[in-house]
Amino acid sequence: MLTGKRAVVSLGHSALGNTTLEQMDRVKPAAKALADLVEAGYELAITHSNGPQVSMIHKAMTELRRVYIDYTPAPMCVCSAMSQGYVGYDIQNSLRSELLGRGISKPVSTILTQVTVDPYDEAFYEPTKKIGRYMSREDADVEINKGNYVTEEEGKGFLRVVAAPKPIDIVEIESIRTLMDAGQIVVACGGGGIPVIEQNHVLKGASAVIEKDAVAGKLAADLAVDTLIILTSVPNVYKNFEKEGQESITDATIGEMMALAEAGQFGEGTMKPKIEAAAAYLEKVPGGTVIITSIEAISDALRGKAGTRITA
Predict the structure, then answer these.
(1) Most distant pair of Cα atoms in the chain: their distance
(2) What is the third-level CATH fold of 6-51+85-114+167-311?
(3) 228-255 as b/e, with b when 16 or more CB fall inside 10 Å?
(4) Neighbours of 182 (CB within 10 A)
(5) pLDDT at 113
(6) Order of strands across the sheet with 129-135?
(7) Angle at 18 between CA 27 and CA 236, to 5 degrees
(8) Which of 5, 10, 225, 238 has the lowest tally of Cβ within 10 angstroms?
(9) Does the pLDDT of residue 262 top 80, yes or no?
(10) Which of 271, 112, 108, 84 lies closest to 191 in space, CA to CA?
(11) Contact between residue 2 and residue 36 where contact means Cβ atoms under 8 Å apart
């Protein structure tokens, strides 16, 4: 059993699904896994993905504008805030119910979290994150004329793409820390946080999304927690994933994992960001531990019987 008593838990896409109904169903087993951690003595800060959710909101707000001309499209920062609110609601609702069912009375709170980014981040010059609905050539031209980026997927149409800059500071970090110190479970930095740019002490929303794993590593480092737990769709990190000679990794140093990442062992948009998050956390908290596993395997992972465990 791990000895650390504070953890940041990062929930991946598999914990939430693609639609509101899928999310309500999938968040229940996630709540059971989180409640297991609470029963094991952990104080938790929870973050989560929001890719399908923020895209759904963006689509809805764009279509609303197309049907009702008096409405204005919602900027990405607003879509991100909306997704934080409703995903956080489902998590705190399900987790509170699960805890009360086990006789544990513990507050669960969601904080709408802003995260500052650098306006000169290279990501703004090469956007890569696809969002929203597939568009016609005509609609894509409208987006381009507004200064937005689009990309074409053959046979499907055009998609808007936005930047994914690196996080600099978590604006509400002291609020998160205060709630944890008061014994509350906190849902924060959802979907990577609401990206904002600081200009003369004013925070202005950015047309971007932040990588959820990057913020998980930042949050774990800022809070100096004992453990960063990244829950994903697979029980382990693997060498040669889905190839001949696939091999699970159970224990490794961050140096070994970064070497594998540099050798191209981990997917750019899947496992590699998780390894980079682990590195960012362990650089600031060298005595910490990172566990990467699935929701189903988390109990075994805490006992060292599953998952990938990474240390400095």
Answers:
(1) 58
(2) Carbamate kinase (3.40.1160)
(3) bbbbbebbbbbeebeeeeeeebeebebe
(4) 10
(5) 98
(6) 129-135, 157-162, 149-153
(7) 65
(8) 5
(9) yes
(10) 84
(11) no
How are beta strands 43-48 and 167-170 bridged, if at all? unpaired
Name 47's bridge partners: 10
For the chain, the C-alpha Rg in angstroms (whole number) is 19
Q: For residue 93, count CB atoms less than 10 angstroms from its CB and return exposed for 0-12, middle for 13-18, buried for 19 or more.
A: middle
C-alpha–C-alpha distance, residues 49 and 192, integer Å: 7
pTM above 0.85, yes or no: yes
Residue with tokens 């951690």: 37
Q: What is the pLDDT of residue 303?
A: 87
Structure tokens, 258: 């970064």
- The tokens for 244 are 């001949």
